[in-house]
Amino acid sequence: MSTENGPGNIQNITAGRDAYTTQSGTINVNHGQTAARRGLGTDTKFLLFTLVADVAWFFIGMLSYTGQNTTGDTWRAVIFLFLLALTGAVVRRWIRRRV
């Protein structure tokens, strides 16, 4: 909304935004496009992928567990813990980008 308060004195006032004023001349204020609903972002897709990988790797480890303290069991546990830490970092980043 633009208003004139006398000769050459123009104010541009938008509800909830900054107010601009000038003594003479015109004002060009570009607020850009309004935020439109977009599809899933790259970070959201990566988060969903890591969550699915966590669940899948958990079940792989659970079904192939021998219980005889073999190196295969140890490696599957280490990979799962790495995936869990990666997922935690991605969740943290995903939340921080939305707050």
What would you say this structure looks like, in words?
This protein is mostly helical and 99 residues long. Helices cover 48% and strands 11% of the residues. It is built from 2 helices and 3 strands; from the N terminus they run E-E-E-H-H. Helix 1 (42-63) packs antiparallel against helix 2 (71-96).
Counting helices, strands and paired strands, the structural category is mainly alpha
Strand line-up of the largest beta sheet: 1-2-3
SSE string, helices as H and strands as E: EEEHH
The coarse overall form would be rod-shaped
Low-confidence stretches: none
Give the % helix: 40-55%
Strand proportion, as a percent range, falls in 5-15%
The number of strands is 3
Mean pLDDT: 80
Nearest-angstrom radius of gyration?
28 Å
Helix segment tally = 2
Topology diagram in text:
Blueprint: E1 2-4, E2 10-13, E3 19-22, H1 42-63, H2 71-96
Helix pairs in contact: 1-2
Entry keywords:
mainly alpha; three-stranded antiparallel beta sheet; 99 residues; 2 helices
Task: Give a short overview.
This protein is mainly alpha-helical and 99 residues long. The protein has 2 helices and 3 strands, in the order E-E-E-H-H.
